[in-house]
Amino acid sequence: MSTTVNAAALALGDDALVLSHRLGEWAGHAPVLEEDVALANIALDLLGQARVLLSLVGDEDELAYLREERAFRNLQLVEQPNGDFAHTIARQLYFSVYQRLLYGQLAVGDSEFAGLAAKAVKEVAYHQDHAEHWTARLGDGTAESHERMQRACDALWRFTGELFQPVEGIDIDWQALQSSWLESVSAVLERSTLTVPDGPRSGGWAAGAGRQGLHTESFGRMLAEMQHLHRSHPGASW
Fold first, then answer.
1. Is the pTM value of this prediction over 0.85?
2. Mean pLDDT, contiguous 10-residue spans, the chain (238 residues)
3. Which of 43, 88, 158, 161 can pair with 20 through a Cys bridge, CB separation 3.0 to 4.6 Å?
4. What one-character-per-residue DSSP string does 180-220 give?
5. How far apart are CA 121 and CA 118, in angstroms?
């Protein structure tokens, strides 16, 4: 497999892996039991995607558990801490809309990712629907839920610009992706009585460079937790 395809698989795989772990942190802590199950299922979908993508590059376990922080190529958006439930939902809304549009374009092409994308886009459609439902429920709910949802949307908006930086090895119309994402997200927020955050209407500004291995402070702590068991017992097997 070419170097560019490896780089693309690593970027998409890391996105799915990291967000899967973040969602998994809600296990036993979600606001209601139903959401424990829903978030766990979304996390498992993403983990399945990560396994397929990382296996295109090398050994999936080694890539997940033995790489150092700077070797990960995930977006900074997906590594953001869960915060309160509204924060998690805003992160999920921004990413799932992006992922559905991205996989939708990849599914109709002839790249190495077409098969995965065709399957994953169906999963991601549910992820997006779940995020939209909760965005509306919180945004158009009580005064407190509205305030928390708006605050979460505002806080994470600055990380959305990085979504549209072209990834080497993925040949799609990034400008069209960006326009469709902004249109879709804006419509959801407006239906939910929320205000589209301030900033360029292009989707925000790129905060940092996760694709280049530069991550936010919280990522190092998350990675240490995710890799702890594997590193503590090297070579162990069930």
1. yes
2. 88 98 90 87 97 96 96 97 97 98 93 94 97 98 98 96 94 96 98 88 60 94 92 79
3. 43
4. HHHHHHHHHHHHTT-PPPSS-TTT----S-GGGT---HHHH
5. 6
